[in-house]
């Protein structure tokens, strides 16, 4: 069994083919963790989890939704909506026993609105991250953390926390110095299809650093994910990413860590159940 520990199967882009994708995942024994990014995508994740026994949900606000920001990526182009962490709204969603985590929340200095000062953005991201951290503590749930171009800033915030933090730094990309910090805080690292990409000739160090992290991460501290519909693994590059493609991530980890695919799959599954301890699988 495999948990795609981070995907957005509830997003509109899957409306036409969601049933087909879910069926294929079921056939392959793949469970899905549908991650909310704002109010409506969190609610949709919960609804989907309540109607499918191989889907679980996370609820929260992604840092790019704190300000209206133009997001233009290979897979999508949109202007994010401005939202705040509405505790009452999320408390209602958290009543569902299919909610296994809070997030994705975190810090992002990649997608930033041009008309705001960096200090203002950082201070709001920090405030909303802490609100979700407190919420997660209250409901005894782990956090799904997003960080892009902001390792230093996030680590500074983590250092101020009074209680231990439980969670995963999803779609980890970075070098061993930031990875080892997160591991010291007790966090897990989630790997996506990015680890299957080839080395970029212009910036070879980025991928070499990431592979070093994969090779060094302890066997009990990694998770696998797709971040679908984004980041299709190398074999499917150019196509929309789907949760079953998480198998490619497992193959790559097995290859880097020089352990078998079966063993890697077992480890990832065990790590997922330990972190997301509300998961009940019959
Ligand atoms: Zn995501």
UniProtKB/TrEMBL annotation:
PANTHER family tied to this protein: D-AMINOACYL-TRNA DEACYLASE (PTHR46124:SF2)
Keyword Ribosomal protein (UniProt): no
Binding of a divalent metal cation 1, residues: 6, 8, 104, 227
SUPFAM superfamilies, A to Z: Metallo-dependent hydrolases (SSF51556)
Gene3D superfamilies in alphabetical order: Metal-dependent hydrolases
Entry keyword annotation includes Hydrolase: yes
GO CC list: cytosol
Pfam families: TatD_DNase
Protein known as: Hydrolase TatD
Keyword terms: Hydrolase, Metal-binding
Superkingdom of the source species: Bacteria
Any GO MF annotation of the entry: hydrolase activity, acting on ester bonds
InterPro entries: Metal_Hydrolase, TatD-like, TatD/YcfH-like
UniProt binding sites for a divalent metal cation 2: 146, 170
């Amino acid at each position: 069994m495999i948990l795609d520990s981070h995907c957005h199967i509830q997003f509109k882009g899957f409306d036409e083919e969601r049933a087909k994708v879910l069926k294929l995942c079921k056939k392959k024994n793949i469970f899905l963790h549908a991650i909310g990014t704002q109010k409506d995508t969190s609610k949709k994740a919960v609804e989907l989890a309540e109607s499918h026994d191989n889907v679980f949900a996370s609820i929260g606000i992604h840092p790019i939704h704190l300000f209206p920001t133009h997001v233009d990526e290979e897979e999508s182009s949109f202007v994010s909506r401005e939202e705040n962490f509405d505790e009452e709204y999320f408390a209602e969603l958290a009543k569902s026993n299919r909610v296994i985590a809070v997030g994705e929340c975190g810090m992002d200095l990649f997608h930033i609105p041009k008309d705001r000062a960096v200090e203002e953005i950082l201070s709001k991201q920090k405030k909303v991250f802490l609100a979700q951290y407190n919420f997660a503590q209250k409901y005894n749930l782990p956090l799904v953390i997003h960080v892009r171009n902001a390792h230093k800033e996030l680590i500074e915030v983590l250092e101020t926390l009074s209680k231990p933090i439980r969670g995963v730094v999803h779609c980890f990309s970075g070098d061993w110095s930031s990875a080892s910090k997160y591991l010291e805080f007790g966090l897990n690292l989630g790997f996506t299809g990015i680890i299957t990409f080839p080395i970029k000739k212009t910036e070879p160090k980025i991928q070499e650093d990431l592979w070093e992290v994969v090779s060094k991460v302890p066997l009990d501290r990694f998770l696998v994910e797709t971040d679908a519909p984004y980041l299709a693994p190398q074999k499917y590059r150019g196509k929309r990413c789907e949760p079953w493609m998480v198998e490619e991530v497992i193959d790559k980890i097995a290859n880097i860590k020089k352990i078998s695919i079966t063993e890697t799959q077992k480890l990832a599954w065990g790590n997922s159940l330990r972190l997301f301890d509300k998961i009940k699988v019959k």
